[in-house]
Amino acid sequence: MVRIFFFFLLLFSFSYGDKLQSTADGDLLIKKIKSLINPATFAKDRAYIDTIFSPKEDYFTSDGKVNSLKVIKTLKENGILNLFFKKPRDINITFKTQGEPQFFVKIMSDSLQNVGYYRYVTSESTLSESEFVWKISLTSEYAADPLVLSQELKKSNCEIIDIIRENETDWAYVVDMKNARLDVSVLE
Questions:
Q1: CA dihedral 56, 69, 156, 152 (to 10 degrees)
Q2: Which residue(s) pair with 93 in the sheet?
Q3: Which of 34, 40, 79, 96 is buried most deeply by CB count within 10 Å?
Q4: Is the bond leading into 55 cis (omega within 30 degrees of zero)?
Q5: DSSP code for 60
Q6: Residue 79 contacts by C-beta under 8 Å, 6 or more apart in sequence?
Q7: Where are the beta strands (DSSP E) in 63-117?
Q8: Could you give the dihedral angle defined by the CA atoms of residues 42, 46, 50 and 52, in that order, rounded to the nearest 10 degrees?
């Protein structure tokens, strides 16, 4: 009798285990979407969001993390993510990496200038054993577009691996610069 019980338990786990994992993954995706848009927009567009983010599995990386850039791209393409303000506002952007700090600041400075941000102030920089954090402040009529910034960073072989929107004007980017290089021409 006990063997039969465990057999059915095992059969049940194989049958429904993938659905339970899918639900957990869907919750991670919804949590990421909620963090990127304001609550009123999420509530108003919930049914539409469920439709455009189907199948949910398409929005995860191979290691099971939410692909923030793909989520942002879908939100922008469907008019749900608004990066513009009614008037210029102070914006705070945090960049985190595990690479060499001076090299990272050079790459980020060049990338920011190439996307139109010339006037910013370093508000904080910290170096620990595990990561370098660089925080900047600037005034702008719109938040930095993560997709444009990502394309610019790709020119230096850097990749944005996560994006966190703390509020409307505070954003954080986690940048992988394992294969980083300067985007400059080689003189012969």
A1: 140
A2: 136, 171
A3: 96
A4: yes
A5: B
A6: none
A7: 84-97
A8: -70
- Residue 135: in which H helix or E strand, if any? strand 132-142
pLDDT reported for residue 183: 73
| Residue showing tokens 């020119």 | 155
Is 20's pLDDT higher than 50?
no
**Phi/psi of residue 179, nearest 5 degrees:** -110, 25
**Do residues 182 and 175 make contact, with C-beta atoms less than 8 angstroms apart?**
no
| Residue 149 · residue 73 · CB < 8 Å | no
Q: What residues does each domain of the chain span?
A: 2-77, 84-176
Report residue 111 as tokens: 């990338």
Measuring CA to CA, which residue among 163, 134, 133 is closest to residue 148?
163
Q: Which of 3.50.30.10, 3.40.50.920, 3.30.70.2750, 3.40.30.10 would CATH assign to domain 84-176?
A: 3.30.70.2750
Provide the residue type at 149 as one letter: L
- pLDDT tens, 88-106? 999 999 999 998 999 999 9
pLDDT of residue 23: 47
Strand duo 159-165 + 170-176: pairing: antiparallel
